[in-house]
Batch of 4 targets.
Target 1
Amino acid sequence: MIPEVGHFALILALAVAVVQSVLPIAGAGTGRVQWMESVRTTATLQVVLIGLAFIALVRSFVVSDFTVLNVVENSHSLKPMLFKVAGSWGSHEGSLLLWTLILAIFGAGVALLGGNIPAGLKARTLSVQAWISVGFLTFMLFTSNPFDRVFPAPMDGQDLNPLLQDVGLAMHPPLLYFGYVGFSIVFSFAVAALLEGRVDPAWARWVRPWTLAAWISLTAGIALGSWWAYYELGWGGWWFWDPVENVSFMPWLLGTALLHSAIVTEKRDAFKSWTILLAILTFSLSLLGTFIVRSGLLTSVHAFAVDPERGLYVLGLLGVTVVGSLTLYAWRAPQLEPGGLFRPVSREAGLLINNLLLATATATVLVGTLYPLFIEAITGEKLTVGPPFFNAVFIPVMLPLVVMMGVGPLLSWKRADLAGVAQRLRLALLAAAIVAGIVWYLQTGGPILAVLSIAIAAWLFVASLREWALRIRLGNVPWHEAARRARQLPRAAHGMTLAHLGVAVLILGFVGSSAWKEEQILFAGPGTTVGIAGFDVVFDGVEPVQGPNYVAQQGQLRVLREGQEIARLRPERRSYPVAGSTTTESAIRSTFAGDLYVTIGEPAIGPESGQWTLRILYEPLVNWIWIGSVMLILGGFLSISDRRLRIGAPRRAARRAAIPHPAE
């Protein structure tokens, strides 16, 4: 009965979405206020109905209702409760329901919190959001119903993919989806602005908080996914330029460009067309990612490689969204009034270069991701475009961007004094040179690109601190005066500084763990000692372990330094009898200097019988990746908490813009 309630709620939600997709925009076109105001009711009703359906699905997983096909295929009665709940979004159908719920949450958020948004813009925005809802609700109801029954019901389920039975990955999809789907509301704002034919600083101010919310969530989702890959997959890496990784990274890159472009639109009434285009393309890349992981093009633990029918539906939705919005953009964008003028040396120019570099980086990732798929579709030949390609084309684009991140915040709007900026950045340049010298001395013979990257990270770190110190006049006024200025500084300024510092820290982790990693792979029997990075790792054998829904062989290792035991590591090789699969669970000794990372593989056969495959890595500085990610996220939260970025613009500005403009 409960699954039928969930199914019926989805059907009602589709009916409500259809009404919301038509009535408000018609009201905005004809000036009928009540039709426009209906979005508040329909958007709220949508989120309630889809939320009800989602609760019904979670309940089916929690009680192990094996009359529901989705539960049978993705759960098991012995599975821990956390992963029973996570199983509700671990399948194609469940993840799609979560996708649609988040879509409705963002729509309801604008309906309930956007009291200062002009009625016409809000009506058009939420109508566009409803068009997207209609597309995904019909997709779910006609091809991917999460409440399909199975008869006769089996006694137990087939279990969730063991690799997905992890706390990190249980939280990863919701965060990622909030990012992906969050950009839908920015897309809706952009299409609504094109329909109205008006983009102004107030529009940019309404868009920025939603962009920032999506960006924060996508950042957290990507970072969590990278952390999960590092400790769960057992290969000791955190990023492989896998197509599924790339499809979440591309919207993040363009979303970052969009954030910066919206600032220029808000502050200087410029970059209007560019901001609109970025909003459209960012969400289009989110849909492209959805298509790639659900079309069967890829085989991955993340991919929902199901059947071509579903892939074709998403492709159709992607085509309508991209072609429709870009056609509208081509028609209306030339009519947008140009904004403020600026000199080639100015903050606007700096942000433009920032945007172009981010767009170029996105294009390189897009080409590297789609090229093998096109070649395979045309010739049937399987190609792999991996880290060597991306390192060769992506890093050369990103390093100048990081240099610009140090310069940009010190530039003035409209016209900047380049000589003065260079003088203020002397300390950053000196720090970069000193750090490069130290790294080169300590890592003689290491990759020159790694040394250069660390130097640029030092440049960005010091330049960001220098810019912040100049803002509060640190060193030029008494301490208490500097502290007062820091308190009065907008939170968005603190957030920007923290985020830029986070990027510098991220680079430190990326480079350290990639350029100076040490690795040993060997057959080991009890008593084997392995020396790596100044540690002695002693293998004492394996012990059997019984888990809730698996059995494991657990390796016993002692870590010694200068003869003293400093840690014990217990990697596992788990077997899941129901799922019929095996996973490798790493054991990690973490410090700020680096991780000692151990996995245990297959037992040896033949002459080496009685020994086990042991893989030991030393990952220098790898934890700075997660620290830098947290700094980015905290920077985003600081910015979104700025009172100037709270939902909506000042009421006075809203009243000025409140007169609805019919679509032409």
Note: Confidence is low (pLDDT under 50) at residues 648-664.
Target 2
Amino acid sequence: MKKTGKAALVAIAILASACGTDSASREEPTDAQTAPIDTETPTGTPVAQGGSLVVTLDSDPGSLNPAITTSGAVHAASETFFNGLVALDENGDPEPELAESWQVSDDGRTYTFALRDDVVWHDGEPFTAQDVVFSFEEVLLEFHARTKASMGSSIESIEAPDDHTVVFQFADPYAPLLQQLNVTEAPIVPEHVYAGSDIESNPANLAPVGTGPFVFASYEEGAEIRATVNRDYFKDGPSVDELVMRIIPDQATQVLALENGEVDFLWGVPGPDLSWLRDNPDIELAATSSNPGGANCIMTVSFNLDRPIPGTLEVRRAVAHALDRQRFVDQVLFGQGQVAEAPISSGIPWAHADEVELPAYDPGEAERLLEEAGWVEGDDGVRTKDGEQLAIGFAHFPTFAKYGELVREQLGAVGIRVNLEAMEPPVFAPTVFAEDNFDTNIISYCNGPDPEVGVRRMYDSAQIGDVPFTNASHYSNPDVDRLFDEASRTVDREARSPIYAELQRIVVDDLPYVWIVETVGTRAWNTRCSGFKPHTGLFAEEVSCEA
């Protein structure tokens, strides 16, 4: 029996975000111990041994298409239906998936992929190179924030010379491509299902057709999603018959359900429950910096630079000095993470600039800056200037409520009134990115395995728009844009490091964001099941469960 801490995997190369709702719900016992069934598949793989795997989701995802968003809620619920051209192992290194092999030209501009010829979509149609071309040209480069922000300005063409070959051609050398082709960054969707339709409203977004190890069966809004094992999966697949994803917003209820054997797998464990779950011989734990929504995530406060108060540098610096980031680690994460020390995650060590200095916790300096900017503390403790209160809104997912409460307490101590605005994910994204209707917010920006994958979208002025989880602050600095371009064209990693270091010094001076904490996710599962891959959205690709 494995114990909690022992099993800790610290993954590689991280959230969008775990999203949830306020309301708690108690689920009925599951049918996880159904009788085993031995079934030969049409292709000889896999052989299902039977039973159900029951996992929890924090919230209703609202969509099951991971190609049109980087929302953690969507990806947690849907990645298992799809595949990428490559997979990333626990060290972040690419492995064959839909692509059997690849070649990179000497000048770093051309990537040629040889695709598997034994892959079929869940509806029986053959998977071809044209599906890859369509996925990138019509979906990923239009709607997936990270893929759009990174590859969008660099790709010259994507062609399918035959059914099983895809060629990516870049205008300049492009280093990070292989790191952004897994199911999280670039899930491949079927052309024959989406072509000619409104991608965002296609019915398949709620009844997905993929190539992954599980086949969509049903979706009961706010309750559960069911899938059956893919008998035609091109790899050795799961040894269960069914995957049941139950929507249980309250984390304490999730833990109780796990302990009672009502569910088998949790995506995250609340900090207060970690120590005693470690002592439960029927539970195994694994910590990872990778999540379905992305890897190497930093909880980040965004300022709306288009509004007068958060658009003032002195106010932003005051906010940064007023926040004791260690308290977020201790009181929100319960040690599951660390204080962010730079704009780029320490999970990308060669790009992380440990020499930059983020504004340190110094409430006295925060008060001095506000006084200097003309904000005078009133009798009620709230500062005012020209008759206007120093009050800001703070938008957040309900699951991030504890961040909001701590922000309100700490900013309140220096005279800034914070109005918390909890929004469900389907409301948050359009409010922040399409309507630009916020003062500040908190987002789990996942940096990915390479800055080009998950960092650029936050700062590149070309990423100001309505695509969710891109440049929320509407930050624009020509020098930063130039440095991102230069870094993406630089193939040698050692040569890219100083470019990202300079870029981080600039954004720390401009402070469009405050980087709070780097997060780590802790998976938990019942030891009756094994074979999990907790660092990937295809977490149950090889799972089997005792009856």
Note: The CA atoms of residues 6 and 285 lie 8 Å apart.
Target 3
Amino acid sequence: MHPPTPTPTTPEPGFNFAYLDEQTKRSVRRALLKAVAIPGHQIPFSSREMPMSYGWGTGGIQVTASVIGQTDTLKVIDQGADDTTNAVNIRRFFRKVCGVETTEQTEAATLIQTRHRIPETALREGQIMVYQVPMPEPLYFIEPSRTEANKMHALEEYGPMYVRLYEDVTRFGHIAIAYDYPVMVHDRYLMKPSPIPRFDNPKLHMSPALQLFGAGREKRIYALPPYTKVKSLDFEDHPFTVESWEQPCEFCGATDTYLDEVVTNDRGDRLWICSDTDYCHQRQQQQTQTPRKLD
């Protein structure tokens, strides 16, 4: 069974709603509007210090703090799971400074903050996905200079990225990028979809939800408005493919979800389970099973 959904609480006194001051939230929302107007294009913003270190999702948290409202229902996932340290603490943080309702169910959420996964349950209109992004620049490992990378974006000079992919084909026989697989947005901007597995790339295409990406350390925001065309880079003779597994999920038997490999003991025994815990629990409940969790 899912744990009971917490009801809204009174925000902790002494904090502004959603922690950030109103002027900061307005400046972030202005950057978000620019990002939505130019899908895939990175917009600089004045990233603020947060009560956590860079690398723990400060960009996504600032975006969430800028768009969350009193009537929103917040879900936070990390690698698809609702019960990791990162997800639990971010959810607790927003309950403390906003008093909003939180949930672990994708369908019930109006605002979803995520690190590394897109939920298996299809998103719907009206929902907002906020991604925590460590490195927003897709050309960084080809052209470390921000100035030169901006010129390449302006000139739509993405040939070096195709060369990077072609090197994989010559070396491995296929494109070997497993996560952060580069995509072309609306036939114009090259974009990094944050470190989601390439399994999730097709979910970006024509998604009915608004998708916002925040990189706190790099001070960049970008966005995918609803129903935006997103195409993963590939070649005609080496088309884009997603991962597949030879075995189903150990808990729910799903064969069409992204699975995590888990080592269970010192002998190296392992099992594969859905990384999306909410989706896995729903399937187990439909099968009238008692949902299982890792110890």
Note: The first helix runs from residue 22 to 37.
Target 4
Amino acid sequence: MEFNFSRNYFELFELEAQFHIDREALANRYQALQSQFHPDRFIESNDQDKRMAMQATTFINEAHKTLRDESARARYLLEMQNVTFNTEKDTTQDMNFLMAQMSLREEIDEVDSQEDPLESLDKLARQSKQEKLRLIENYQACFNMHQWNEAKEIVLKLQFFTRLQQQINQKQEALEEKLL
């Protein structure tokens, strides 16, 4: 069994290294790679091939997860340009953005007291999605102009919106469970 671990994620999925990707091509290539390298296909193989299949599948899954997620893909593209991230220390320094995010989180916490909590959450989700789209446009512009620090700042903000969407989803599930 052979697998080239030196390819970057875009090369692995035969995609151009850019932010906007063909999601259908990503999904199709993922299925093709999974069917080619899935460990179940190597049950009768020697230990080395079994181990390689496991490592290849792990690499494929990580690449797929990264390219599928907009925030992770944006970060990966910057890392390909040697921009580094420190998950312990890096955070946005934009105080207006931080204040706006605190306000959004408070709105999520207070949604239970709204007349229609689910509608209020939907409104917050739409608002979050619009802001995320605006950030993605800005990221794309900064990336194209090689403004790495500005693009990195936007990636840090996009990560916030990923966490915010998770918080909205959790709140929505809790509310729906309450209604059952």
Note: The radius of gyration is 20 Å.
